[in-house]
Write a structure and sequence with these properties.
alpha+beta, LimpII, transmembrane, 19 strands, scavenger receptor activity, 29% helix, two-stranded antiparallel sheet, transmembrane helix
Length: 493
């Protein structure tokens, strides 16, 4: 019994110790903190880190789909009818991107690089041949020149006469390749993505995240400038956030900022919902309506007005300050999240969340983008311009030209790496729960041992008690009641 009691006592001590230690570790979150600190140190933009090579040369394939709006009633529109467009696309390109001339600066706390992109057409993912398919749309070079001269009546009049003499109209029909990669117009050379194949959009300097993990991948300067000069307020000219990298340990309540040179500004995204991509948990972030809201709806956007007279409604951003004065207007596809009047003004618009929303799916533990769709639409603002006779019948209208859908989904090799890292993080972070579970098992063993010991004690006590030989007590004539005994047999008898 002594050994059994010692064993029970030992189990009890082990059980209580495991429970106390496990609960203490859960409360203090020692292992979780330790793991998070390790992530903060390892997910940095320095040579040899877990993420540096994939940041320099992102492995997942990026696809760029181009959808054009073919204008079907040009003559009727010029006569006063509502413009009618038909969506044509996609014309799909595989986008290859990498960061060139990568170098560490300021003792490794920052890193500089040029973001280089090149494009290869994918016929099997496209609706047609971009070298043959034609699109009728706004004559952007002509409108760019007209807007450039709108403040000078005499120059505008002279240009109007010259444009009429060479047959340059307000609309044009060009092949997809010409519209995208460029063509020589009588007015100027133009292409929506001219000189963007195989080139970069300037030098970026990023925080490595070594000093503060929250700064991981955040843009410090672009083209040597820490502030933009396109807009009318310091807030609007601020370069905030990253272009494609996000810090680990992301929180749902965060507002993440993204700097995009294509829009010449920073935008922000907010948490929408939890998603799962190839078995990896992620938070979906998407731009809210307030990002492109009017100054009346969101006063913070007043700085994005080119001038008080050139401030558009919700859902639109006039980017002419960074497009050499061309009347280019950015929006989400089909005027998604824009004022209804812009949708109603064009026959053929049908905004849908599923097809036109921009979003990022980010694994919150690592900050890795597991899926993304960046969608933006190019529009041209046309209106009556003094000196140009052809515009005299026009009212201000936002004509959609095309929209771009850049999409990416994490590749299988990257999935395996992320899942391995998440497994390590989860096991280490939840180690206290394992200790508590073991303590619970030992507690169950302890209880079982106690119950069995008590049963055995009761049984032993029953075995040492006595009972009469029969139910009716026998009497000894001399000694009264007696106990029946079994006589000892003589071995020699």
């Amino acid at each position: 019994m002594g050994r059994r009691s010692c064993a029970i006592c030992a189990v009890g001590i082990i059980c209580s110790s495991l429970l106390i230690v496990g609960i203490g570790l859960i409360v203090t979150q020692v292992f979780r903190t330790m793991m998070h600190n390790r992530l903060k140190k390892e997910i940095v933009l320095v040579e040899g880190s877990r993420v540096f090579e994939s940041w320099r040369r992102p492995p997942p394939p990026v696809y760029m789909e181009l959808f054009f709006f073919n204008m079907t009633n040009v003559d009727a529109f010029l006569a006063g009818a509502k413009p009618q467009v038909t969506q044509v696309g996609p014309y799909t390109y595989r986008q290859y991107r990498y960061r060139a001339n990568v170098s560490m600066v300021e003792n490794g706390t920052k890193v500089s690089a040029y973001n280089t992109k090149s494009f290869v057409f994918l016929r099997e993912r496209s609706v047609g041949d971009p070298s043959e398919d034609s699109i009728t749309t706004v004559n952007i070079p002509a409108w760019a020149v007209m807007n450039k001269l709108k403040d000078s009546f005499w120059k505008a009049s002279m240009m109007s006469v010259w444009m009429n003499s060479i047959g340059s109209g307000l609309f044009t029909t060009r092949t997809v390749n010409e519209l995208v990669w460029g063509y020589e117009d009588p007015v100027l050379i133009f292409g929506l993505m001219a000189k963007k194949n195989g080139t970069s959009n300037g030098e970026f300097v990023y925080h490595t995240g070594q000093q503060n993990y929250l700064d991981f991948g955040r843009v410090v300067t672009w083209k040597g400038q820490s502030q933009l000069t396109f807009w009318t307020s310091n807030q609007s000219n601020s370069i905030n956030g990253s272009d494609s990298a996000f810090h680990p340990l992301l929180d749902k309540n965060e507002r993440i900022y993204i700097f995009t040179p294509d829009l010449c500004r920073s935008i922000y995204m907010e948490f929408e919902k939890d998603v799962d991509v190839k078995g990896i948990p992620a938070y979906r972030f998407t731009p809210p309506r307030s990002v492109l809201a009017s100054k009346e709806e969101n006063p913070a956007n007043e700085g994005f007005c080119v001038s008080p007279q050139e401030c558009l409604g919700t859902g639109l951003l006039k980017v002419s300050p960074c497009r050499k004065g061309a009347p280019v207007v950015a929006s989400f596809p089909h005027f998604y999240l824009a004022d209804e009047k812009y949708v109603a003004a064009i026959e053929g618009m049908s905004p849908e969340r599923e097809h036109h929303q921009t979003f990022l799916d980010i694994n919150p533990t690592t900050g890795v983008i597991v899926r993304a769709n960046k969608r933006a639409q190019v529009n041209i603002l046309i209106n009556r311009i003094s000196g140009f006779v052809k515009t005299r019948t026009l009212n201000e209208t936002i004509i959609p030209v095309m929209f771009i859908n850049e999409s990416v989904v994490i590749d299988d090799a990257s999935v395996a790496r992320v899942q391995k890292l998440l497994l390590i993080v989860n096991v280490v972070s939840n180690f206290p729960l394992i200790i508590v579970a073991l303590g619970g098992i030992m507690l169950a063993v302890f209880i079982i041992l106690l119950v069995r010991a008590r049963k055995q004690k009761t049984t032993s006590e029953d075995e040492t008690s006595y009972t009469p030989v029969s139910g009716k007590e026998k009497e000894d004539p001399q000694n009264g009641t007696y106990i029946g005994l079994t006589p000892k047999v003589d071995a020699q008898a």
